[in-house]
Specification:
Elements lengths: L10 H12 L10 H5 L11 H8 L3 H5 L3 H4 L5 H5 L6 H16 L4 H10 L5 H19 L13 H4 L2 H36 L10 H17 L12 H29 L10 H26 L7 H25 L3 H21 L7 H15 L3
Helix pairs in contact: 1-7, 3-7, 7-11, 9-16, 11-16, 11-17, 12-17, 13-14, 14-15, 15-16
Bound molecules: iron/sulfur cluster (2 copies).
The site of one iron/sulfur cluster has 13 residues, from helix 2 and helix 3.
Amino acid sequence: MADNYLVEPDVGFIKEVSALGGQDVKKCFQCATCSVVCPISPDTQPFPRKEMIAAGWGLKDRVLNSADIWLCHNCGDCSTKCPRGAQPGDVLAALRTYAVSEYVSEVKPFQKLAKMVNDPKALPVLLAIPAVIFIVLGLITGLLDFTPEGEEIVHAHFFSTWLVDMIMIPASIFAAAAFALGLKNFVTRMHENALRDGKTDKKDLDPVGIVRGIITSVPAIIRHDKFNECTENRERSTAHMMVLFGFIGLAIVTGIFFVVLYGFQIHGPYSQLNPVKWLANVSGVALVIGSILMLKQRLAKSDQISTYKDWYHIGLALALGLSGMLTEMTRLAGMGGLSYFIYFLHLMFVFSLFVYTPFSKLAHLVYRTVAIGYNEWSGRK
Ligand code: SF4
Ligand code: SF4
C-alpha cells in the first residue's frame, strides 16, 4: 500500500523559488518527459519530475533535503524537451540557490548574507565591505602605503602581504565555518530523506564512507563525465571545465606561494620563468576564456532563464580572472598606479570569492560533490 503523506504547502517558498528563476514551475502537468530525457537521472525514483511536483506544491522540506536536486548538472536538456515550457532545469537551479541559504539558516548573519548575495540591490554594499576593511585596517596597522617608494612595481609595497593575509585567512575560516554548518545540515537531512524514501538501506551516517565516496567520484567529476552525457547543451561542458580547472590551478598556485613566502621567506614578484608562474598564467587565461564562453552561451540561450544569481556567478569568475591577469600585465608594462589600483580590485574580488561563495551559486562545487559522494556511499537505489 502506498504511504500517506500529509501535504503542508509553503506558499512563500513557491514565491521565492519563482523569484530565483523557477517562475515556470506551475506550468508543469507532470508528463515525466523531463525524467525520461534527462541523461543522468537514475532509473529508480528519477528526477526532475518529482522535484517539479514537490516544488509546485510548496513541499519545501521534501524537495530541499533531496540529494537529487544536486545531482542535476543544469545541462538544460529537460527544459528544451519540456512540452509545457516549465523549464525544469531552471527550477532545479533555483531550488539549489534556495537550499544553500536554508542549510545555514539557523545562524542569522549567514542567512542575512545569503539573502544579500542573491539580491542585486545589495551588490554595492557587498563590494564596499572588502574595500572598507582593507583601507581601514591598512591605515590602522600602517600596512597600506598609497605611495609606495622605488622604481620597481611590487604589489606588496602597496598592500603588505601581512595585511592581505590578516584579512584573507579569517575570510577563509569564515567560509569554512559556513560550509561546515551547511554540509552538516545538508547531509543529515539528505540521509533522513533517503531513508524515508527507501533510497538507501544504510541506517547510520558514516562520514568516512561519504569521504571515500567523494574520493572515488573525483576523477569522473574532473572529467565532467556526467556533463558530457548531455545532448542539447553539451558545449557548455568545455566552458565549465575551463572555469573549474582555472580555479583549481589558482588554488594550487596560492598554496605554493603561501608556503614559499612563509616557509622559505622568498618574496615576490616571482620570475616569469618559474613553472608555478606558468601554472598561474595558464589558469588565469582558462578562467577568463571559460567565463567569457559561459557568458556568451547564456546570452545566446534565449529559452533558458537567467537571473541575477547566474550573472553574479559568471561575473565574479570573470572579474577574478581579468583583474588577476591585468594586475600582472600592467606590472610588466611598468604602469605602477594602474597596476596597484587593479590589484586592489583583485583583492576585493578574492575576498568576495571567499566570504560570499558559501551562499552563492558557486557553492554547488561543494554541495554537488558531497551529494555525489553520499550517493556513492549510500548505494542510491
Ligand atoms: S517539467 Fe515539463 S516535462 Fe517535466 S513533468 Fe513537468 S511538464 Fe512534463
Ligand atoms: S538540467 Fe540536465 S541534468 Fe538537470 S534534470 Fe534537466 S536534463 Fe537532467
